[in-house]
Amino acid sequence: MSAHTVFYKKIRSKNFFFYVFCIICIILVAVNIIYSQKYNEHMYGVMEGKSDSIIIYLTHILGTPLFNLEIAAYKADGRNDVISKWTSTQLGTVTRIKDLEDAVRLYPYSPELYYNLSLLYSANGDKTKAKENLKKAQQIDPSIE
After folding, report:
1. Yes or no: is domain 40-140 CATH 1.25.40.10?
2. pTM summary value
3. d(CA 120, CA 97)
4. Nearest 10 degrees: CA dihedral of 84, 89, 90, 96?
5. 118: exposed, middle or buried (C-beta count within 10 Å: 0-12, 13-18, 19+)?
6. DSSP code, position 64
7. Which residue, 6, 17, 128, 129, could crosslink 121 as a Cys pair with Cβ 3.0–4.6 Å?
8. Domain map of the chain by residue range?
9. What distances in angstroms separate CA 130 from CA 5, 45, 119, 127, one per listed residue?
10. Burial tier of 126 (Cβ tally within 10 Å: 0-12, 13-18, 19+)
């Protein structure tokens, strides 16, 4: 084999890998574009001003600096329906947390109670207590993830 043919085989193999790399990049960019256009269905409700969707949105941003800005904006816009619904939702969560804490005192070896308590603390924005209760549930029942 001459040096000329060896050189062209190296070039062809490099081109093949380059083209495969380009095709993979194009596919990944296309998938990224497609999935970046997909919104959570509640975001449309927030944009339309639906109070149920706004409550779900507020629940997701609870504990972030954006939360206080959003509450202030809804108060400034006169959205008393959203504020009252949010307040009742939070009061309901606090009541459920107190009920579960009472149940945990009565049944301290129930992993389900600790797990549900961690979910409520997480929904209420208290991540440290949520992690503590999840660890307790996992100590009692290691199959809990």
Report:
1. yes
2. 0.51
3. 7
4. 150
5. buried
6. S
7. 129
8. 1-38, 40-140
9. 67, 28, 7, 5
10. middle
